[in-house]
Amino acid sequence: MRLSAPIYQLRRKAKLLSHEARIPLHEALERIAAQEGFAGWSMLAAQASAVAPAGKLFARLSPGDLVLVGARPGHGKTLMSLELAVEAMKLGKPAVFFTLEYSQRDVLDRLRAIGVEPAEFDDRFKFDNSDDISADYIVRKLAGAPRGALAVIDYLQLLDQKRENPELMQQVRTLQSFSRVRGLILVFISQIDRSYDTSTKPFPDLEDVRLPNPLDLTLFSKTCFLNNGEVQFRAAG
After folding, report:
1. Which residue range(s) make up the domain with 197?
2. What's the structural domain count of the chain?
3. Residue 13 shares a structural domain with residue 117
4. How far is CA 104 from CA 76, 101, 118, 128, 133, in A?
5. Is residue 106 part of a domain?
6. What is the pLDDT along the chain (237 residues), one digit of tens a residue?
């Protein structure tokens, strides 16, 4: 059964319904699932997962990769990054979500929105929204992580928001070196500049990444750009 819209749009529709109808989000999700012809949201999410590109993308990642996931707001970059984390956990690898934007409840809700019950990966999924998040902080927290572990950094442009932190370029170089030595996969969620115009090109690219501070984007070994439910994945070189 084909969905009427990408799952991130259906979830956004459910969130709006929850607000307008003053009902819990889980009830709104069930209503949206029924409208799509499914017995429940979990079944809808499972259907979406079966055709989601995250599995194919993850299969092309290697230990030591720095991955840039970029999209304009509301186009699914957070869900894509979480789906990559889930793929790592399915293989028994731990995953960490570092964020300066979301609460733990927000992230757990998003996991449920893609059909994942957080308790299933309770021993492998870690959430961190410390105000101290920076490259040095991430290195300390991942010091004992095994090869193949995956970490999501939400988001790239906030790494150097504090003046006492090193410049963005230096932080990304630090994380690049660390990931290569330890064999980790680091996924950076990135903002896209407002000047990006869908009528000019179907996907944003490195030229559209919002950079308030200088950064050599060739430091990233893989890129994933999203727009309107479609995904464009590229490897460096």
Report:
1. 54-235
2. 2
3. no
4. 18, 10, 11, 8, 15
5. yes
6. 677 877 777 888 888 999 999 998 889 989 998 998 888 888 887 776 655 678 889 989 999 999 999 999 988 899 999 999 999 998 999 999 999 999 999 999 889 888 788 888 878 999 999 999 999 999 999 999 999 999 999 999 999 888 899 999 999 999 999 999 999 999 999 999 999 998 889 999 999 999 988 999 999 999 999 998 889 999 875
